[in-house]
Each structure stands twice: as structure tokens, then as C-alpha cells.
Amino acid sequence: MREEHRQDLVQLPSYAGPARVEHVIACLVYPWRLPTWESYRECRRLFLKARLPTFGGAVSVWLTATPRCANPERLVEAWIGQIESLRSF
Q1: The whole model's pTM is what?
Q2: pLDDT digits (tens, 9 = 90+) for 9-62
Q3: Burial per residue of 10-21, b for 16 or more beta-carbon CB atoms within 10 angstroms, e otherwise
Q4: Which among 13, 28, 1, 6 has a CA at the least distance from the CA of 59?
Q5: Are strands 57-67 and 23-32 parallel, antiparallel or unpaired?
Q6: pLDDT digit string (tens) for 73-82?
Q7: What's the rounded Cα separation, in Å, for the pair 37 and 45?
Q8: Three-class HEC string of the chain
Q9: Are 47 and 80 in contact, with CB atoms under 8 Å apart?
Q10: Order of strands across the sheet with 57-67?
Q11: How far apart are CA 72 and CA 57, in angstroms?
């Protein structure tokens, strides 16, 4: 894990923690080169997820990426499946 990602994760509780809801989703999105993004998308590994318990609820952390020269349709397709998976919470 890169140092800047580690620092982002350390700051995450301060942004996601104050919400007064049972479940918060915090998504960190990083820029990637298009070939790397396409490779991860094809392997269905664009989203890494973890769920962390908090006082009275949970924070889901999603790590993902967007290609630097993004085709909007491809991005939307990748995100739709993840958003639809929220129905299982």
C-alpha cells in the first residue's frame, strides 16, 4: 500500500465517523492508467471493500480507481453493480 493511501485511510474515520446513521460508506477513488483500470475491471477487482465497526454502526470503506482518460459509459457500468450491491445491506 502506498504511503498516501495509508494516510487517506487514517483520516477516513474523522470524515465518516460523525454521521449519525447506522451505516456509512466512504469511498476513496484514485487515478489509474487506462490499461491498469481495464485489467482490474476485467478481473472484477475494481473495488476493494472492508467493513469496520463503529459505535452504534459501521463504516464500509471502498477503495477504487478511475482511469485518467475515462469513458463515462465504462465508469457508470462499473459503479452501477457496486451501488446495486448495497441492497444486500
Answers
A1: 0.72
A2: 777 766 666 666 777 888 888 888 989 988 998 998 989 888 888 777 788 888
A3: eebeeebeeeee
A4: 13
A5: parallel
A6: 777 888 888 8
A7: 9
A8: CCHHHHHHHHHHHHHHCCCCCCEEEEEEEEEECHHHHHHHHHCCCCCEEEEEEECCEEEEEEEEEEECCCCHHHHHHHHHHHHHHHHHC
A9: no
A10: 23-32, 57-67, 48-54
A11: 33
**Nine-digit cell at 6?**
495509508
Per-residue pLDDT, 16: 66
Domain ranges across the chain: 3-88
Closest CA to 47 of 2, 87, 86, 7: 86
CB 78 within 8 A of CB 66: no
d(CA 24, CA 58) in angstroms, rounded, equals 6
